[in-house]
């Protein structure tokens, strides 16, 4: 219980820091974007505004996801993290719609004049530094506690670094008179966001539909195949729910073994799975080897 409490505190802390960072970046980008008329910076501001919403959703989801199972939620509340990531996907797609529309409009109408100031560069450079710091902090916590919500945020903000870099290059080009670089940079940002949206959305839907995780299946199959007391196994089922991994499997053992020996074998397998897969909940059904499941 202590480890879970520590996990909740640390996950909440990094998620809350991400919220404050998003507030600062959103306000800064909108202010500089409006003052300079840069679509690249305004597109980044809108992106950061949705980042703020996503970060807030992530913060509340990690607060709820580690609540223990109850009479209404037998498998806990972990999937709130996956729902959070899916909502984040929709928010990213909304960003893309506005960026693409405005960028194409400016390219077609020729309204691409912008004012470049030192603040334009400063806000983008600051954004890159902050996004780099928080994406590393989020990814570290995500890997440590197997949190998909934090991992989604980390992936999101790591791509923000690339999109901000593209905007920075666009500003440099515009400063030398090639103003079309700004809306073109905005379109590149939109393409990056679409790519991130696809990855986040697909992964979230896979988990919500209980798609079997191939990497986890291989780990467990290797453990079972290397357990000499297990003659065969079947009905291996794995489902993800937030940070938790639920595993069910039936194993066949020597029928001459007593209940205590069979139970010890199952405990050993569970222990090895726990070592390889964090936050795993394992249920093993034991059967005598002469009662194998019919083909």
Helix share bin: over 70%
Major pleated sheet: 3 strands, mixed
Provide the CATH top-level class of the largest domain.
Mainly Alpha
List the total number of helices: 8
Described by the principal axes of the CA atoms, the overall outline is elongated
Quickly describe the structure.
The chain is mostly helical and 295 residues long. It has helices at 2-36, 39-65, 79-109, 118-145, 148-175, 181-208, 214-225, 259-276; strands spanning 232-241, 244-253, 280-288.
Structural key phrases:
295 residues; mainly alpha; Alpha-Beta Plaits; 2 domains
Explain this structure to me?
The chain is 70% helix and 10% strand. By secondary structure, the protein is mainly alpha-helical. It folds into 2 domains: 2-208, Alpha-lytic protease prodomain-like (Up-down Bundle); 214-291, Cation efflux protein, cytoplasmic domain (Alpha-Beta Plaits, 2-Layer Sandwich), CATH 3.30.70. Helix 3 packs parallel to helix 5. Strands 1-2-3 form a 3-stranded mixed sheet.
Fold blueprint:
Elements: H1 2-36, H2 39-65, H3 79-109, H4 118-145, H5 148-175, H6 181-208, H7 214-225, E1 232-241, E2 244-253, H8 259-276, E3 280-288
Parallel strand pairs: 2-3
Antiparallel strand pairs: 1-2
Helix pairs in contact: 1-2, 1-4, 2-3, 2-5, 2-6, 3-5, 3-6, 4-5, 5-6, 7-8
């Amino acid at each position: 219980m202590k480890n879970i409490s520590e996990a909740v505190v640390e996950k909440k802390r990094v998620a809350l820091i991400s919220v404050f960072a998003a507030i600062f970046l959103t306000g800064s980008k909108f202010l500089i974007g409006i003052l300079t008329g840069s679509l690249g910076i305004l597109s980044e501001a809108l992106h950061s505004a949705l980042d703020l919403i996503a970060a807030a959703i992530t913060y509340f989801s990690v607060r709820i996801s580690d609540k223990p199972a109850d009479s209404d939620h037998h498998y806990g509340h972990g999937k709130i993290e996956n729902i959070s990531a899916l909502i984040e996907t929709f928010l990213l797609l909304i960003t893309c719609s506005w960026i693409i529309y405005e960028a194409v409009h400016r390219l077609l109408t020729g309204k691409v004049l912008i004012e470049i100031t030192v603040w334009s560069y400063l806000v983008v450079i600051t954004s890159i530094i902050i996004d780099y710091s928080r994406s590393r902090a989020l990814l570290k916590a995500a890997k440590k506690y197997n949190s998909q919500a934090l991992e989604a945020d980390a992936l999101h903000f790591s791509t923000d670094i690339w999109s901000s870099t593209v905007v920075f290059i666009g500003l440099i080009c515009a400063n030398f008179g090639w103003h079309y670089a700004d809306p073109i940079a905005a379109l590149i940002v939109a393409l990056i966001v679409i790519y991130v949206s696809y990855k986040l959305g697909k992964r979230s839907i896979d988990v919500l539909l209980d798609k079997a995780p191939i990497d986890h299946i291989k780990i467990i199959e290797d453990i079972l195949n290397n357990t000499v007391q297990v003659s065969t196994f079947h009905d291996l089922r794995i489902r993800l729910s937030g940070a938790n991994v639920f595993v069910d499997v039936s194993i066949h053992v020597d029928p001459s073994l007593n209940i205590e020996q069979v139970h010890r074998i199952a405990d050993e397998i569970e222990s090895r799975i726990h070592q390889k897969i964090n936050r795993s909940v394992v249920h093993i059904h034991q059967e005598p080897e002469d009662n194998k499941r019919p083909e």
